[in-house]
Design brief:
Blueprint: E1 3-7, E2 10-15, E3 20-25, H1 43-46, E4 47-58, E5 61-70, E6 77-83, E7 89-95, E8 101-106, H2 118-125, E9 132-135, E10 139-140, H3 143-146, E11 148-150, E12 158-165, H4 169-174, E13 183-189, E14 194-201, E15 212-215, E16 218-227, E17 230-238, H5 242-251, E18 252-254
Length: 256
């Protein structure tokens, strides 16, 4: 169980079982339920859309149902329910190549146009007494500043953001002087799917074996990257087929 409050890019998540409050900054990347709001997305070029013509019910509201099918093997398909009046996505299914459901997100209860008292919400976001507060520290940066580039871009996926996550204190203390920059997180999206690349200095004590994994529609892979300048550890995560993560890993390279 958890309670999440968001005001602009500030997000506070309360975890009552562990008595932890996580405070972080998040840029909106068009994920559920803000799907389909990116004006510069590649949806039309890489997906075909079919409206099924019947009105379904989502969270007790009248909703239109649309199926999006990918034009290539680099992305999944989607079944999307949008509320008729506002266009808000109220239910989303991620589909495998054979049409089976990999993952589903939906509102079980939703009240639109509810009166919102900002002062009350702001007060609730600040009620961290009795909770261990964890703050996620992210530094906005660019791939070029960190020495990375996509030498071979993956079709349809555009860069959305790039941040630097500071290293843990123990890792920073053990790292050679001048190398403890932390982990670079570079995010890409095609308007529906999102891929995150996490790159950090290679640590033989922690990075022992390259691996792949899957949970629902989310896939993961790790890989060591080496050149004459040193070695790094890549973790790629995204709601895409495994071949797409492999393409990102193949296309990533040092720019200096």
């Amino acid at each position: 169980p958890r309670s999440t409050f968001r005001h602009n890019d500030r997000v506070v998540t309360f975890l009552p079982e562990s008595k932890t409050a996580l405070i972080e900054r998040r840029e909106s990347l068009g994920v559920f339920p803000d799907l389909l709001k990116s004006a510069d997305s590649s949806i039309a070029r890489f997906y075909t859309a079919k409206r099924l013509g019947t009105t379904e019910r989502g969270a007790g509201l009248d909703a239109d149902l649309v199926v999006l099918k990918p034009k290539d093997g680099l992305r999944y398909g989607y079944r999307i329910w949008t509320e008729k009046a506002s266009g808000l996505v109220v239910k989303l299914q991620t589909l495998d190549s054979d049409g089976s459901v990999l993952e589903q997100a939906a509102f079980s209860e939703l009240q639109l146009d509810a009166p919102v008292q900002m002062a009350k919400l702001t007060h609730m976001m600040g009620q961290t007494q009795g909770y261990k507060v964890q703050t996620e520290e992210l530094q906005k940066t660019t791939p070029q500043a960190e020495g990375w580039e996509m030498k071979d871009p993956v079709a349809g996926f555009e860069p959305m953001s790039c941040h630097l996550r500071p290293p843990a204190r123990a890792a920073a203390a053990a790292a050679p002087e001048g190398t403890a920059r932390g982990t670079v997180q570079w995010v890409f999206s095609d308007g529906l799917a999102t891929v995150s690349l996490f790159v950090e200095p290679f640590d033989p004590a922690r990075h022992t074996q390259e691996a792949t994994g899957q949970m629902g529609a989310t896939r993961m892979m790790t890989r060591r990257i080496s050149d004459k300048g040193g070695s790094w550890w890549l973790t790629a995560v995204g709601e895409v087929p495994q071949r797409t993560l492999a393409a990102f890993a193949q296309g990533l390279g040092r720019s200096r």
